[in-house]
Amino acid sequence: MKFKINSKIKKVALGGVLLLGQFGCSDFLVEKAPSNLTPDAFYQIPDHAEAALASVYADTRFMGGGAGIFSSNWQLLEALTGTSTTETAQNSDLNNLYGLVHDPNTIHVVNYWNGLYKVIAQANQVLEKVPPITPMDENQKKKILGEARFLRSWAYFQAVQLWGAVPLITKPQTAGSEDFLPSRAPVESVYKLIVDDLLEAEKAGLPWMDVSGRVCLAAVKAQLGKVYLTMAGFPLNKGAAYYKLSADKSLEVISYANANPSVINLFPTYKDVHTEGLKNRLEHLFMIQCNTLVAGNFMGNFFPNFKPVTYSGPGGTGSSVPTIAFYNSYEKGDLRAKNQDGYFYTSYFTNGNGAPFDLGAPYVFKHFNQKANGSAGSAGTRLDNLNVPQIRYAEVLLNFAEAQNEVGGPSQAAYDAFKRIRDRATLETPGLGSYTAASFREAVWVERWHELCYEQITWFDMVRLRKVYNETTGKFDNFVGHVNLSSNRPLQEKHLLLPLGKQEMLNNPNLKPQNPGYPE
Predict the structure, then answer these.
(1) How far is the C-alpha of 69 from the C-alpha of 391, rounded, in Å?
(2) Which has the closest alpha carbon to 110: 377, 506, 414, 516?
(3) What is the pLDDT of residues 101-135, one digit of tens each?
(4) 391 pairs with which residues across the strands?
(5) Which Gene3D superfamilies match (predicted)?
(6) Could you tell me if 469 and 445 are in contact, meaning their C-beta atoms sit under 8 angstroms apart?
(7) Is-contact 386 377, C-beta < 8 A?
(8) Is the peptide bond prior to 135 cis by the omega test (within 30 degrees of 0)?
């Protein structure tokens, strides 16, 4: 991370040496081994707080963790959407996701639960242990706590959307904790914590943007807008009041961007979205931080299978590739579907920088790092330090357009936000007067599917809207009954939630009952 996790660890180690230096030889002999350092002994100085927060950021990379052969955890949120398929078919768990037959043993489901709760556990440690650290600059402390609250809310927001009622853990736990085997909290209670955490983070004195990759104010406000938008829809159905909250919060980011276009804006080109030198800047409001010194970019499963698009020659996994139907659903002339200029590529350069060759099908270009892998006439560095986007300004514009339309129909401001997305795609947009509230609603949804694809967002849209884009008709089907063309299987009511992992439920009987439709 640009957060310099390694340097923080070194500082903590040095801090430990200085602390031990206060004791005589006899004291040293009765000290606990450094490997047995406890949270109570650790949180002593400001550098400890910074290092602890760095560990929370580091744990957000769980989504790139392995999930069996040719698969990563993040594919959980792509395989279910129907916008992708696979060229390998060698991972049975991934195949079960594509086929909509996942169950409590599916490794991606288990890993995602564990990963999110590890982020939550680490954030809880920071929130509990950092406040008593003295002496410590209060502004530094406030920002650290604000960042930890954002990261905890980020994890809970994903968990509640994936599983519904989940355990609500807000304090560090040990085997002796009274709530060590917690039951599941109501969905509304989880959302209350999410909102409360974000409102506290909003007051933490964070900068509007932070090129180091730490949580910034724009990310907090954008996330609040997204949370309110989700609460307005299923399953809480809070309606108009929350659409307005969403629109107003998204508008705060848009207003700042309009006044400071060199700080927050859309990138001029789609290549900028995956340009290593532009991470944490302009359009990227929040990203999972990647650096090969710690952990490089983990989106390689989008590489085509056994095609020489990188310096390593014929490789890649092709375990996530676009469905032809989804690729073909882009409007004619949409720059996002243009080879190498948009979010897809249909040809590339042999071994990254050699002779051009045809790929034979479209593949995802959105996460392709040309600096690392090579480009026309330029050899790759072989170091993929590209971050993974979580919140882009493009999403804020679409959140606002959707929410504002639900408040009072297609206003000029909502139309302008929507049109900016289409303008960058070089698409003509009908005049404002040609839209009704209903037609504008679906037009914004289409842009969400085409602009935000393969960023682990589409599945959450499907769940909150109870609607799915039909690539063949260009319209929206009801969630239940929609046939994913990647599997030719219809979505069922049970698919609105994931199953809880079998082992988790065996370890904690208080999690019962299992989500409807899945075996215990």
Answers:
(1) 29
(2) 506
(3) 999 999 999 999 999 999 999 999 999 999 999 99
(4) 286
(5) 1.25.40.390
(6) yes
(7) no
(8) yes
